[in-house]
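Field log, afternoon session.

UNIT: design team B
ACTIVITY: writing a sequence onto a fixed backbone
BACKBONE:
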C-alpha cells in the first residue's frame, strides 16, 4: 500500500503541474514531453502515455513526434495521466477549457460517486450516481467508457466501474483500488473508434529474426511490461521504430489502440481519481 499511496501523490502532483503548463499557445507535444519528464523526476514511471484529448476526442489521444497541434483558448482539454512505482498505478484526470458547466458536471459526478466507494456498495450504484449528477446538468454520461479496478501492473483489472446504472449487483470490497472516471458530453454519450492512436500494448511475445525488431521488442518488454506505451517514446530512443512498430503490430505481438471520439461530435469533459475502497474512501490522487 505504501507504494500505491506514493504513486497517488505523484499522480496528483503531476496533474497540478500539467494544469499549470496547459496554457493556450502551447504545442501539445511540448506539454506531453514536459509531463513525461516530470513523472521521471518525481521518481515514478508513466503507467500509460499521457492522454491529451481535445474537444470531441474523449480519450486515447497522445501526440506523436510530428504533432503540430497548438492548444487554443476555445479548446476543452482532458489531461489523463498514470504513474506507477514498481507496478502500483495511480490514474487521474482533469479537464480545462471554457466550458465551465460541462467540466463541473464530470467533477461533481466524480465527487459524489467517490462517497459510495465503500465495501458492500453495489457497483451499479456508482454508475447510477455518475449518471444522475451528469444528467442533472443536462449532459449525458459516456456509457461505453468506464472506470476500472487497478491491480499491480494491471491498469484495467477485474471489475468495470460504469458511468451509468449497468445493473451489476456485484459489491465493492474493502481494500480494492478503483479508478472512477466520469465522462460528460453535450453529445449522444457514446464513443466510436477513431484513427490509430500511436498507443500500443504488448500482447504476445514471438521470436523475431530481424535484429532491430528484436532489440526494440526486448526494450518494450523490459521498459513497459504489460502497460501501454506510445510511438513518441520509442522514437526518442530508436529513430527507426515507426517501421518496427508496424511489423510488430502486423504479427500480433503488439496491439494499437484507437482514438476514441464522441460519436456525435459532442464536446467531452472527464474527471478521474484513483480511490481505495474503505468505509471512509481514500482518494489516493487527491490534489492539494
Ligand atoms: Co482510468
Amino acid at each position: 500500500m505504501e507504494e500505491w499511496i506514493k504513486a497517488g501523490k505523484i499522480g496528483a502532483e503531476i496533474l497540478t503541474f500539467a494544469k499549470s503548463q496547459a496554457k493556450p499557445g502551447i504545442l501539445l507535444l511540448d506539454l506531453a514531453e514536459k509531463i513525461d519528464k516530470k513523472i521521471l523526476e518525481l521518481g515514478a514511471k508513466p503507467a500509460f502515455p499521457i492522454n491529451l484529448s481535445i474537444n470531441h476526442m474523449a480519450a486515447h489521444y497522445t501526440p506523436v513526434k510530428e504533432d503540430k497541434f497548438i492548444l487554443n483558448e476555445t479548446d476543452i482539454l482532458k489531461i489523463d495521466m498514470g504513474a506507477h512505482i514498481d507496478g502500483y498505478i495511480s490514474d487521474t484526470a482533469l479537464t480545462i477549457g471554457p466550458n465551465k458547466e460541462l467540466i463541473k458536471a464530470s467533477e461533481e459526478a466524480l465527487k459524489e460517486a467517490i462517497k459510495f466507494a465503500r465495501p458492500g456498495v453495489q457497483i451499479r450504484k456508482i454508475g447510477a450516481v455518475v449518471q444522475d449528477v451528469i444528467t442533472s446538468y443536462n449532459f449525458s454520461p459516456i456509457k461505453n467508457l468506464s472506470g476500472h479496478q487497478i491491480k499491480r501492473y494491471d491498469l484495467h483489472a477485474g471489475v468495470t466501474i460504469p458511468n451509468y446504472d449497468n445493473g451489476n449487483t456485484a459489491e465493492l470490497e474493502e481494500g480494492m483500488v478503483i479508478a472512477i472516471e466520469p465522462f460528460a458530453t453535450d453529445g449522444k454519450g457514446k464513443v466510436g473508434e477513431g484513427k490509430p492512436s500511436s498507443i500500443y500494448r504488448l500482447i504476445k511475445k514471438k521470436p523475431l529474426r530481424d535484429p532491430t525488431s528484436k532489440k526494440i521488442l526486448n526494450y518494450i518488454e523490459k521498459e513497459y511490461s504489460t502497460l501501454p506505451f506510445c510511438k513518441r517514446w520509442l522514437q526518442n530512443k530508436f529513430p527507426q521504430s515507426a517501421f518496427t512498430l508496424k511489423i510488430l503490430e502486423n504479427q500480433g505481438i503488439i496491439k494499437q489502440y484507437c482514438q476514441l471520439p464522441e460519436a456525435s461530435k459532442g464536446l467531452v469533459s472527464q474527471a478521474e481519481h484513483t480511490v481505495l475502497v474503505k468505509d471512509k474512501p481514500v482518494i489516493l490522487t487527491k490534489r492539494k
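LOG NOTE: Residues 91, 148, 179, 181, 272 surround cobalt (II) ion (CB under 6 Å).
NEXT ACTIVITY: expression trials, pending approval
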